[in-house]
Amino acid sequence: MTMTNAGIILEKLELKNHNLLESATNTKLIKKEANTFFSKLETYKKFNKDTRRAILLYSQPGMGKSSTISKLSKEFIEEDSGTTIIFWDTSSIKSSSVNKFFSTGSFFDTSCTRMLFVMDDIGGGNTEDYYGPKGADASLLELLDGASVTFRVPTFIIATTNTPESLLKSLADRPGRFDQMFELEAPNADERVKLVSHIAGRELTPSETAALESKKSEGLSIAHLSEIVIRAELHDKSFADVIEEMKSHKARIERAFAKVQKSLGLN
Q1: Whole-prediction pTM
Q2: Lowest CB count within 10 Å: 8, 95, 109, 199, which one?
């Protein structure tokens, strides 16, 4: 989706390849939910419900939300060429404009059999003329409730957020807004080793494996793991040294943030 003076238009978006394990639990869970929905649309017709299902992916930044969605998007298209995928960058386009687009400005080609609608980073960032966290505004809730938009083809909605603490209450307390919520957690020790080996394109040494399996590596995101490979190569450092740097940096940031919070009287 792109916002123009004439309203929202759709532009072709190239799907990127991301470093993501085929065995990633996150991908399997979401794919299973989507496949169940698309294969059992008669359930919605039986109970006279709109054929839409929505899930929310939430996590801290860098845990693989974009990678997961990109991988699933490619698989959906490969399985059914009639799949339409629309990406909405919520930081640049207001939800009220999206509601208007789907209500009055969009038409589905007859070849379109189903849609994957991605709401990227709800509740995060700022729109151009509103300087503050967006949160779950009324237009977004109307869209999720089905009060303002009726999708004319079976639609699977995937929304992502890096700020679950500001969204979950308003979204989770109302059935029908999101049917399932998935938290993308940091890779475990085995996944860290496999993923870094995949990114590096080689088998890891015993010392590299030990560094990734250590307690110091717990909580590292996919983005962190990718940086370990790059930084170690660039600066001729061991994985253990890079991990130590990352942990030290995180500790400094947390201390600085705590000082700011205390000075503002927010503790």
Answers
A1: 0.76
A2: 109
